[in-house]
Amino acid sequence: ESAARALGIIKKYSPLPVIADIHFDYRLALLSIEEGADKVRINPGNIGGNEKLARIAYNAGEKSIAIRIGVNAGSVDRELREKYGEITADVLVESAMRTLDFLESCSFRDIVVSLKSSNVVTNTEAYKKISNRVCYPLHLGVTEAGRGLRGIIKSSLGIGSLLLDGIGDTI
User: What is the per-residue pLDDT for 10?
Assistant: First the structure.
C-alpha cells in the first residue's frame, strides 16, 4: 500500500510514464489508479475474479489509464490447465482472450496484452497466435528467464525472434 501511495510522488518527478505492476490485491490497482499511474499491469489469473477486474476497468476508464493484462504460465486458470493438460500457447491465448472479452463487455478497450512463459517456444507460439487474433498492442517478454547469461539468451531469443517477425509493440 505504501508503494502504491508513493506513485503520485514518483509520477510528479518522473520524465517517463509510471506503470504499476499489481498482483493478487485489486485494491492496490485501484489505489495506483487514484495516485495517477499511467498504466496498470494486472495478472487476470491472480487478481481475484471478474468482479474485481470490472472495478479496475471502470476506475481506469474514468481516468483514461491503460491496463496491461499479463497472462503468465504460472497463473492461468485451473480450468484451462485441466482442459489442455499442460501449459501451451493455446492455454495462454485462451486465457488472454477470456480476459479481453470480459474487459470489452465492460466497454474497456485501452488494453495492452502480454503473454509470458518461461519456455521460449511456448512463449513465441503464444505471441504469434494472439497477434493474428487481436489488434491490441503486445508487450513482449519471457517470464522467469533467469539471471546472467542464461536469462539474457532466453530473453534475446524469445523477444528477438518475435521482433524479426514484426510482432510486438513494447518490451
Answer: 94
